[in-house]
Structures are given as structure tokens and as C-alpha cells.
Model the fold of this input.
Amino acid sequence: MSKNKFLNESFHGVQPLVPMTRVRTIMKSSPEIAQISQDVLFVVAKATELFINQFSREAIKNCSRVHELDYQKLADLVAKDEKFEFLSEIVPHKVKAKDALKEIETNK
Done:
């Protein structure tokens, strides 16, 4: 069975919730990417959707109320869970400007 046939049969009629045009734009921003096939675009969009789903579900586990998910909970998850460590520069803990300036001064 070819890869295209597998993708077409397995995911027929199932579009990712993440906009594929947005994923294409992000992928094309990389100088290493010359062309993006529809199959690759679909798989990356679907994988992104699944990742966001897992990330938010795990963050919600740490909430006392279901509708309480906020940036701080996401940053806490990134800081404590090794599998999300790669997001530490993207989802850092918030630091007040005055605290950051103090830190810079003490490190000089």
C-alpha cells in the first residue's frame, strides 16, 4: 500500500483543526524547506493538533477547576515535566520587569 493511499484511506474526511494554510506559512518560513507536499502538510498539522491536545490536557490536570487553565499553568507544566522542556524558552515563567532588572544588575 502506498503512503498516499494509506493517508487517504486512514484520514478520509478528517481535516486537522489547526489551519493547514497557517502550518504551511510557518513551514515555508524555514530556509531549508523548498516544497511541502499535501501529505506532509496534513501530517504536520495533525501532529500539531495532537500535541496541543496533549499539552493542554496535562496542564488541565494541574488545575483545581476545569475552566482555570491559564499561562501560569502552562509555564508550570513546561518547568516541571521533562518532555516539555524544549518549550522552556517559548513558555517561560513570567518575570516582573523590576525583578528582571534587579537580576541583570546583580549579574553584572
User: Anything to note?
Assistant: The longest helix spans residues 38-61.
